[in-house]
Amino acid sequence: MKPDDSKFSTVPVGRLGIIVHPSCKDLCDKIDQYIVNWRKERNHNHKSNVVFKDYEKDSFIIPSTCARFGTGEAKALISDSVRGADLYIIADVLNYSLEYTVCGHKNHMSPDDIYADVKRLIAAASGKPKSITVIMPFLYESRQHKRSSRESLDCAFALQELASMGVDNVLTFDAHDPRVQNAIPLKGFDNIMPTYQFIKALLRSTNDLEIDADHMMIISPDEGAMQRAMYFANVLEVNIGMFYKRRDYSVVIDGRNPIVAHEYLGESVEGKDVMIIDDMISSGESMLDVARELKRRNARRVFCISTFGMFTNGLDSFDKAYEEGLIYKVITTNCTYQTPELLERPWYVSCDVSKYIALLIDSLNHEASISALLDPHDRIKNRLAEYAVTHTIKEDNN
Fold it and tell me: Hey, what domains does the chain have and what are their CATH numbers?
């Protein structure tokens, strides 16, 4: 995806600055490089104008640190001026690989720790940026989005807290329930769906797909995933099936009612490739149960597609499922931390969203509309037409 230069003739909101939390350094290095290259190649008539000062740079990343004291307390330091900047703070709250020391003991950073660092970075900016956008690919505490009993509403409170600190916009991917944006109705909130990126990864990783209603189906693993599954099914012009979870409401384990069984609603999957679409793979237990049920119904190949691959119980269960033929491919984005072991698995395909985020940042810095970026229907159709001829797709240029 390369930006349409006709959309970038407007004056930038401010000098572009990106603050990168260590939790997503690798992703942000790619994002930064895309923007650097695009702006160097862009034929802009007003580049010499004073309002375009620092429009071209070797890097838009502003150096920053979140240092820890021996007690585990922390402080943020931004090492360059952010006055008048259009500032983007990017953090992956699910990156558990980071460590810090508390009184000589090693601690892994939790989502709470990383979210606290985001607030520290906002505070370190001291209200000087022209605007602040927080890009949090996995929205902090987004699974705690509604109150069922005497429960905290963590995600809504966190959004209000960010807004009170001066954040103008929040960008996130595939929010568990995007209605949580109602907590900050006067602030910007964009829920980005990586559907186009998923389809690119799928088409590049498998060269013998027959994409029609006779050979493929989209499967929603539960009622909560139906909307994203319906979009996939519509753009691919295939049918949809759904599982729903029967739970034992008399028992509570780890804060939730255990799943008794997965019941299927839909037409036969026999002999068809099936795509299970969900927002996240946590332990993977539900995803593999659904795959097992589909194979029991004689599905041909099972593709597991999810925005966030956390694999909280490790990879052994997926290795076993792959060896048994239950799953064929698992596709997740690089929005969250990926272990080296995961990237080496023969069943795993990484879906890169760095170019997409770079284009969003570049567009927002120019106050250009991102509506076309959020609706990838036409681009998907073009890729499907290309795949029908070549059984693969090339790197996109638009």
Answer: 5-193+355-367 (3.40.50.2020), 195-352+375-390 (3.40.50.2020)
